[in-house]
Design goal:
Keywords: Cell membrane, Membrane, Transmembrane, Transmembrane helix, Transport
Distance between the termini: 57 Å
Pfam families: BPD_transp_1 (PF00528), OppC_N (PF12911)
Oligomer: single chain
Main location: membrane
Low-confidence stretches: 1-17
Membrane topology: Multi-pass membrane protein
Order of helices and strands: HHHHHHHHHHHHHHH
Radius of gyration: 26 Å
Subcellular location: Cell membrane
């Protein structure tokens, strides 16, 4: 009987290890990366500022459109320069006043975040969707389909996108706006989103095509084919789950790239224009007053630099967390 008795585990005995999902392991690795956590907090801060811009405007008591310097005497000089030092920074106007028009710089900066993020996120959603569809199709089908899609991607990559933006955007706007009239904000934003989307899906498509080319020869895909699974089921159930990591990495790299591209186009005059708050337009205006009001250039420049740097660091941390062998 004694041999049949099973000893109960003691209170101090170690418990069996608890299994963790790949997502939990990635989250654990990400939390250990201090630079990534800090970068994530900075990115989250920018997103919250952009989403809460109307609330901030209500609490602050000002908006980005009112020309306070022109409406109230004593704020701007005869040449349009803020009368107070450091660009008019004081307890009422936290980041000073815009030269010539006298708008509040802080609110322009807050709403500029909103503009840049909105356009960038919409573009990234479009290019990611198109890139996934085209890349997976080319990689899985192969043959003539892969060859044709590859040549289309090569053609788009060969076109100097910046010059195309400068040349095509005014032409596209002229098709919908009568001569002498200013294009509405929604039309400019739509044209900007479409133009950016046309050229920026190629990177994700080429990356995912290469991933699918290697995955389609793996044993689990062959087993699915042998079992009679349809092509749609193989793509949805077998391939796409293994493409989550590269897709997330591409997204974290595309968002800051689209923010800087949108700002550059606005700086060059083919993006968002007056009176829409935009970082690129602010930098363009600030460059004209760099000697007299340098703060108007510093604030959007530093904000753009911090956002792009934080998002790039976040992308590196996400990549290392999802694929710990990638940095070796």
């Amino acid at each position: 009987m004694a041999d049949l008795l099973v000893a109960e585990p003691s209170a101090g005995a170690s418990k069996p290890p608890i299994g963790r999902s790949p997502g939990q392991l990635a989250w654990r690795r990400f939390r250990r990366d201090k630079a990534g956590v800090i970068a994530g907090c900075v990115v989250l801060f920018f997103f919250l500022i952009g989403l809460g811009a109307p609330v901030i405007s209500w609490l602050y008591g000002k908006d980005p459109y009112t020309k306070y310097g022109l409406d109230r005497p004593g704020l701007l000089s005869d040449t349009g320069i803020p009368m107070k030092p450091n660009g008019g920074i004081d307890s009422e106007f936290w980041f000073g006043l815009e030269p010539k028009l006298g708008r509040d710089v802080f609110m322009q900066l807050v709403y500029g975040i909103r503009t840049s993020l909105l356009i960038a996120i919409v573009v990234v959603l479009i290019v990611t969707t198109v890139g996934v569809l085209v890349g997976v199709t080319a990689g899985y089908l192969g043959g003539k389909t892969d060859y044709f899609i590859g040549r289309v991607i090569d053609t788009l990559l060969a076109i100097p996108s910046t010059l195309f933006f400068l040349a095509f955007t005014p032409v596209a706007l002229a098709l919908f706006v009568a001569p002498g009239k200013e294009a509405p904000v929604w039309l400019r934003a739509t044209a900007l989103i479409l133009v950016l989307s046309v050229f920026n899906w190629t990177r994700s498509a080429r990356l995912l095509r290469g991933q699918v080319l290697s995955l389609r020869e793996r044993e689990f895909v062959e087993a699915a084919r042998v079992s009679g699974a349809s092509s749609r089921r193989i793509v949805v159930k077998e391939l796409l789950p293994n493409l989550v990591t590269p897709i997330l990495v591409v997204v974290t790299l595309d968002v800051p790239a689209m923010v800087t591209t949108e700002a550059a186009l606005s700086y060059l005059g083919v993006g968002m224009v007056e009176p829409t708050p935009d970082w690129g337009r602010m930098i363009h205006t600030g460059s004209e007053y760099i000697q007299t009001v340098p703060t108007y250039l510093v604030f959007p420049g530093v904000a753009l630099l911090v956002f792009v740097l934080a998002f790039n660091l976040l992308g590196d941390s996400v990549r290392d967390a999802l694929d710990p062998t990638s940095h070796r």
